[in-house]
Amino acid sequence: MRNAYLTAARSLQLGREWAVEGDQPRALEAYADALGLLRTLPPERTRDVLLAHTHLAFYQTLELMGNSGGQSHLHLGVSYARSTRDPLARAIAEECLSGLDVVM
Questions:
Q1: For the chain, how big is the Rg over CA atoms in Å?
Q2: Where are the domains of the chain?
Q3: Dihedrals phi, psi of 22, to nearest 5 degrees
Q4: Residues with Cβ < 8 Å from 51, sequence gap 6 or more?
Q5: pTM for the full model?
Q6: Residue 1: which of 51, 43, 57 has the closest Cα?
């Protein structure tokens, strides 16, 4: 399982880098790869933290593209951030929600 976590984390990292560089389609593909892998793993904190970060990154990238279809990623990311209590995921979730008049 450790290899799966490392692979998913690497896909998340690459996706974030590509999103910042302006290659949003490639970033979304990397996030989708990470989500696909993480969904095959049994529930546990590490998996859930990575799911929170990946869903929130997916949402942020879609917003950068002007695509408002990322609401499901926002809801899932916020939910995982709340349940894991990961400080960074919670901070990212709050940042995503700040423009939506919603409090975490």
A1: 13
A2: 2-98
A3: 95, 5
A4: 35, 38, 76, 77, 80
A5: 0.90
A6: 43
With beta carbons less than 8 A apart as the criterion, state whether 47 and 41 touch: yes
Question: Based on the number of CB atoms within 10 Å of its own CB, is 66 exposed (0-12), middle (13-18) or buried (19 or more)?
Answer: exposed
What is the rounded CA–CA span in Å between residue 12 and residue 23?
A: 14
Residues listed for the chain: 104
Give just the sign of the alpha carbon dihedral 13, 18, 24, 29: negative
**Predicted confidence pLDDT, tens digits, the chain (104 residues):** 789 999 999 999 999 999 999 999 999 999 999 999 999 999 999 999 999 999 999 999 998 888 777 899 999 999 999 999 999 999 999 998 886 544 43
Distance in angstroms (rounded) separating the CA atoms of residues 97 and 25 = 23
Cα separation, 56 vs 80, in Å, equals: 10
User: Which amino acid would we find at residue 102?
Assistant: V
